[in-house]
Write a structure and sequence with these properties.
It is a single chain. By secondary structure, this protein is an alpha/beta fold. The chain has one domain: TIM Barrel (Alpha-Beta Barrel). Helices cover 50% and strands 18% of the residues. It has helices at 10-19, 29-33, 39-50, 64-75, 92-100, 113-122, 131-136, 141-155, 169-178, 187-192, 197-211, and strands spanning 2-6, 22-26, 54-58, 81-86, 105-110, 126-129, 160-163, 182-185. The protein has an eight-stranded parallel beta barrel with strand order 1-2-3-4-5-6-7-8, surrounded by seven helices. Helix 1 packs parallel to helix 3 (39-50) and helix 8 (141-155) runs parallel beside helix 9. The longest helix has 15 residues, at 141-155. The two termini are 38 Å apart. It binds SN-glycerol-3-phosphate. SN-glycerol-3-phosphate binds at residues 6, 26, 28, 130, 132-133, 164-165, 184.
């Protein structure tokens, strides 16, 4: 499972790259609204930093024709751009056209298996089921990932399942067990993933025992 960072915050993206664990970025209008820099310039910087890994950038227009034209402007920002488009009926012809034109598309705000199936039939690069937001309304978000994976295997579709709206390490664990192709995580969650209290306790215990030897140099 590839790990993406769900952020438009440059220092977090730089840290993610340094770790060697982050293989893509997903952004959305909420992330961009939190950054002071001009969004277009910031996104160009992120794309350059992440090359050749994918950077998802979301459309903000509402009317289908405007979405289509904006998708092209977004795709022109860099070679590694993936255009993020909400899963809405009005946008289906636009999505189909963009796919035919060779634009990489990530379908966001996806909440059901049938939405996923239909978007995969259009040939998009990614579908992004929102796990946490389903949990928020008392619906099991991880089951959606599991079901999408089953459908992917049955029909052998190429579209990648990008688990999004993940809120904690258990979501990442369950998305991996369900066979998600990618998981996008906010920076705070990314930093949490490697922590385990027993690892930290173990380091302390080894250190205490080692100090009993009172060695100045080793080896
Ligand atoms: O990738 C989608 C993500 O940004 C949404 O997360 O926590 O706002 O549901 P959340």
């Amino acid at each position: 499972m590839k790990l993406f960072l769900d952020s438009a915050h440059l220092p977090d993206i730089e840290y993610g790259l340094e770790t060697g664990l982050i293989e893509g970025i997903t952004t959305n209008p909420t992330h961009l609204s939190k950054e002071g820099e001009k969004s277009t310039e910031l996104l160009k910087k992120i794309c350059a930093l992440m090359m050749p890994h994918d950077v998802s950038i979301e459309v903000t227009e509402k009317n289908a024709l405007d979405v289509y034209n904006q998708a092209h402007r977004i795709a022109d920002l860099a070679e590694n751009v993936v255009v993020k488009i909400p899963c809405m009926p009005d946008y289906v012809p636009v999505i189909k056209k963009l796919v035919i034109e060779g634009i990489a598309v990530n379908i966001t705000l996806l909440f059901s298996v049938v939405q996923g199936l239909l978007m995969a039939k259009l040939g998009v690069k990614y579908i992004s089921p929102f796990v946490g937001r389903l949990d928020d309304i008392d619906t099991n978000g991880i089951e959606l990932i599991q079901d999408l994976k089953k459908i992917k295997n049955i029909y052998n579709f190429k579209t990648e399942i990008l688990a999004a709206s993940l809120r904690g390490p258990l979501h990442v664990h369950q998305a991996a067990m369900a066979g998600a192709d990618c998981a996008t995580v906010p920076p705070a969650l990314f930093k949490l993933l490697l922590h385990h209290p027993l690892s930290e306790k173990g380091v302390l215990l080894f250190d205490q025992d080692w100090k009993k030897l009172n060695m100045q140099t080793f080896p």
